[in-house]
Structures are given as C-alpha cells and as structure tokens.
Amino acid sequence: MDPSEVDVPPLKDLTIDNITDNVKLINSKCANPRLKYIVERIVQHLHDFARETRLSHDEWMTGLLFLTSVGQICTDVRQEFILLSDILGLSLLVDSIDHPKPPHSTEGTVLGPFHSHEAQSEPNGAVISHDPDGEPCLVLCDIKDTNGAPVEGVKIDIWETDSKGFYDVQYPGREGPDQRAVMHSDGEGVFWFKAIVPVPYPIPHDGPVGKLLVQLKRHCYRPSHMHFMFEKGGFDHLITALYLRGDPYETSDAVFGVKESLLIDLGTVSSEQAQKYGVKEGSKMIGYNFVLVSETESKELREKNAMEAMKAQGRTMKLWNGLPVPDMD
Amino acid sequence: MDPSEVDVPPLKDLTIDNITDNVKLINSKCANPRLKYIVERIVQHLHDFARETRLSHDEWMTGLLFLTSVGQICTDVRQEFILLSDILGLSLLVDSIDHPKPPHSTEGTVLGPFHSHEAQSEPNGAVISHDPDGEPCLVLCDIKDTNGAPVEGVKIDIWETDSKGFYDVQYPGREGPDQRAVMHSDGEGVFWFKAIVPVPYPIPHDGPVGKLLVQLKRHCYRPSHMHFMFEKGGFDHLITALYLRGDPYETSDAVFGVKESLLIDLGTVSSEQAQKYGVKEGSKMIGYNFVLVSETESKELREKNAMEAMKAQGRTMKLWNGLPVPDMD
Asked: In chain B, N or C terminus with fewer CB closer than 10 Å?
C-alpha cells in the first residue's frame, strides 16, 4: 500500500494496557466487514493470551518456531496445520458451527488432513481397496433427505487407510490412489462398494504436532473409521465418518471426531447378500443410512444459531453473507 | 505415546458447548505446569474466537492455508512469523511484559525479523556500513546502570539497513554481513562506530504478511531506525532501537515500535568531534545514553507485575520458574 493512500491514526508509546485498542484502531480501515471483525477478535485474543500468561520472550520465540515448523512440514499431501487444528478441537468445533444438523440428520465430523483430490470415479460395486492384507468389507449405504426421500446423484467421496493404518498419500513411492473413490448415489439413493475393515491408526506423529502430543501426555491414535464426504446442489455439504463401535480408541480419539450417532457395528454378509453383491458369505459388512440436510434448512439453522449465540454473548450483530459482523447502524 | 501408558478421560459427542472443557481435560495430564497453563489458555481463546466469529469452514481453511504460507516462506534469513507477530502488536506486547523497565532506564522495542548471527566483532571506531550511497553517520553512545555507573564489557549487537532500506540478508547474492556489527563497551561504558543515517523502509511485503496489510489498508513502512541489542551477565537483556524524530512514519510504524524515549534528533559533528573521531565536520551524528537494568531488578519487577496482573484478572496463581501458573494448593 502506498503510505500516502493510507489513513492511519497516530500511534506511539504503546503499552501493555493500550496496545490492543490501538492495533484494532489501525486495522479498522479494512473494507471487508467480516475480515475486519475476524482480525479484531484475533488481536483481542492474541493479546489477552499474552497478558493472561505473561508470555515470556523465550516462550514467544518457541511458539513462533513451532508454528514455522508446522508450516514447513506441510506438503501437497500433508497438512500439519489441519492436524494441529484437529488435536486442539478447533476442527470439530468449526464443523459443528458451520454445519448445524437438525434432529435425525447425519452428524458431521472432522475432515482430517488426508482427503485428496486424486480419487477415481467408481461405479456402484467397485473395489476401492486393493490391499491384499485388508479384511474385505462390503459397504452398503443409502442417502435420504430429511423428508425420507432417496437422494439420487449425490457425489460421495470415500477414503480410508490400508490395513497398516496408512493412507495412500503417506507412501512416497505410491503409484496412484487407493482406498479412496468418488461415487454417485443411484435412483434409490443407494451406493455400495467393496473396501476393507477400517483399522485404528496413529495420526502422523513424526512432526511438530506429534511432539506436542507427547508433551501433553496424549496418544496419537484415531479409532477405526471410514471417511465420507457428500456433495449435491441444494444440499449442505456433509463431511463425516463412520466409526466402529468397541474400538479401543472409541472414547479417546486424538482429534475428537467420534459421535454416538456415527458409531456402527460391523455386520456379517448373509448368503442372500453374498449372492446379490458378489462377496463371500460371512464376510464383514457396514451399512448406514445417511440423511442430508437441504442447503436452505442448513443456512436457516446456521444463521439462527449464529444470531442467538451473538445475542447470548451480548454482541449487537447483523448477518453479512450469512455470517455475523458488528451492526454499526 | 503408547496409548496404554496414557490416561485419558472418556470423550465422545463433543459439541460447541462442551468441547472446550473436554479438550482442556484431555490436555490436563501435561507434566509441565507452565506448558499446561499456556495450552489451556490457547484452547480457550481459540475456541472462543471460533464461537464469537461463528467461523465458517471456508474461513478456517483460509486461515490454515495463510499460516501454512507464513511458515513456508520462512528461511534462515526470513522469519515471516515474527513479522506477523510484529504487525499484530504481539511482539511489542511480549517485550513490554518480559522486560519491564523502571523509570529512567532505556525502553525496549521490537526485535524484528532481521537480526542475524553473522555480524563481525568490531572495535570502537569501526566502519560498520560500507554502502557508498549511505549518508555517513557517527554514532556515539554510552551505557550506564540505573545508579549512573558506566557499564564496561557489554556485548552490543547493532544492525540497520543500507541506504535503499534493505538489510544485508535480503540480498540473495551478498558476500558477507554489512550494516551490522557486534561491539563491546569500553571502561567508560562508551561504544562508537561509523554507520549511515537510517532510512525508512517497507517490511518485506511480497509474502502473506504483506498481503494481509493490503487487505487491512495498512502501509508496510517502518520509520528510520537503528537496532541495538545489549547483553552482559547480571543485566537484563535489552532489545531496542533508536528512531529519527520527524520521520514520515514516526506515528504509523507498521510494527508499533516507536516510543517517545527512543526518538532522537540527528546531530551534526563539531570540528572538535571531527578531529577526535576521524570524521568530517558537519556530517551527521547520533548520540544516546543507554541505561541497562540489572537482572535482579528486572526479575523482581517482572514477577511483581505478573502477580499483580494475575490478581487483577482474578486468577489464583503462583510463580514457577519466574512465570505464573495456577496455584492448585
């Protein structure tokens, strides 16, 4: 920005007590009301954090170098900042805020850092895992709307680890995607595929986030689960996962993703199913009925919840592109 | 961490309202009381921030990618997270908390991202800037303690930009350090050297922090200044800078560093000084009397301020390695 174009209030001699208001003031020329509000809240919390901890220069530097290392370990296939957000509970919180669910709809959960855009489009019945050591698992699901009508043509992104607990992208020498697919629901809202039984696995713990978990005496395991992401025009984007009930990490997921409504019991393929779906009788299966919320319903609920929360916090706000900003009028 | 060694409270079905307490609970096994307190505060502020803004998934992702880019632009000679901390006022705030100054001692200010460990040790009288376009400037300073006694043998790190407003480390092809030196005060507490008149300059603005400043309609300029860092056993580490009074950015420093007590007027070398210091009569000069605080005095003041602040915040705390932690006794 050319300084001559900038209208900055005079600032000098800033102290522990007056710096926050002054930094807010210098940022207050921001033309985007939402960014302005977000930055105003960041400055307040960052400064309050320093004042409440009496943060030392050494701790400040340790923190900045920690964040630097989190950024530097990120690659096209590893997102350590998502992982950091996950283990601090921020990811789940943001999903809960942004994708509120009316009763009887499918709850969301953490995206995690391993979704990729490499998945192949597959037809119903496809084998999406080629790990010979994985235990075969038939996955048989359908999708309805909140009125109980089947939803056709939903794009479903599915991803899980191999039998060793690693996603394809964690293998440097991999040849292509595996244990992931993009599918579409049929006229009855059905989609089904052949995968493997999910296993528990550690989140990547060789980086700064793993080191932090050790410091906090937390383990880095996630319970067995399979990720699903649903997209269709007119419906709220749903990021969720199904978790195996009884997993040793069911109540201690390193990233706080488990919800009762997303727990499933592993079933067993009947002889009729074996014939119908071309799998072995007695092999494992997962079934689930997903319920998508319409975009309108989700938007209304999100905005209603937002305004109620703002009121409860004593803030006078209005909605701007569906998100709260201070109401200056 | 081996999960069997970890004692984690059962967590499931976390919501907007209960997630914060539960994340704190899972982190509460941390053995280091200071880290535990710091992380507890981070979780509270991070979650409150999301609840107060009703942070959307897109905004969350934008933020994480922003932090990733801040980390990824960092190199051995560029620290973008320090820059981010600087423009948000956190750096100055932390310096004020960690290095409290009794009256009449020299105030501290931001370190900035351009201190390096490459500076050569130089004797009094050294030429520390070799930029032929710089305006020569004699710098003549002394160091006293708070009782007015000269302090000998202080290690002084000095750094400034060249006449174009760039630090040596910003030139990829540079041959070695310039516009920086490490010196030591003599028996009278004096140190002096030949430098150039500081110029205003933009902080690096080709990265994510520069882009943020544009969004906030802030300029990226720092007023003309010269950095100083003082170290001697028994004295509190002092990071400071001298600013030229009347600089166009005197009251709008992009990183909030200017303090009235650190403003200086450029002087003119007298004929006597010209002869004594081997510089041209009428050339520019900077003089300053630095006053260092003893480590004991600084520690006492820091701890007293910390405990008073904690009390004012309604927190029952005790000191642990000189820093506050919750007092559970």
From this structure: C
